[in-house]
Specification:
single chain; Gamma-B Crystallin, domain 1; 4-stranded antiparallel sheet; 8 strands; binds calcium ion; signal; Peptidase inhibitor family I36 protein
Length: about 140
């Protein structure tokens, strides 16, 4: 009996290790899904889905944001225009596209559903600190 219990503990420890190891690759995406509400696309001012250290301090769109010039990260006085460094698409239906210009103009970056970029300064330097609007591809035309 004692041996069986002991074996169970060993087995659980092994499983826990495996989960931690598997989680390292998807960890950042999973964390973003938790802080970008379901159905929204989100942007943060810094790397790894944070703005000034806070995951809750983001800008988000249920359909679209045609201009970030008047929008601060939630709970902050930090303006999001030309400042976003990480993005996540937690939408339900389509890709999201982030643009360097207002009204969905300029250079663009497509982010597939349930995915994101943790560090645009590394992966897409042309988009880093340059995003001024974003929308879901499913949103119609000049979505406001
Ligand atoms: Ca930034």
């Amino acid at each position: 009996m004692g041996v069986i219990v002991r074996y169970g503990i060993v087995a659980r420890t092994t499983v826990a290790f495996a989960l931690v190891a598997a989680g390292t690759a998807g960890g950042a995406a999973a964390a973003a899904a938790a802080v970008c509400p379901s159905g929204y696309a989100c942007g943060w001012g810094d790397r790894y889905y944070k703005t000034s250290g806070s995951t809750a301090a983001r800008v988000k769109a249920y359909e679209c944001q045609y201009s970030l010039s008047f929008l601060n990260y939630e709970g902050t006085t930090r303006n999001a225009d030309d400042d976003i460094t990480s993005v996540y698409n937690n939408g339900n239906h389509s890709n999201a596209t982030f643009f360097t210009g207002k009204w969905y103009s300029g250079a663009s970056l497509k982010v597939v559903r349930q995915d994101g970029y943790v560090a645009l300064n590394s992966s897409h330097p042309n988009m880093n600190d340059s995003i001024s609007s974003f929308k879901f591809d499913s949103a119609a035309g000049n979505c406001t």
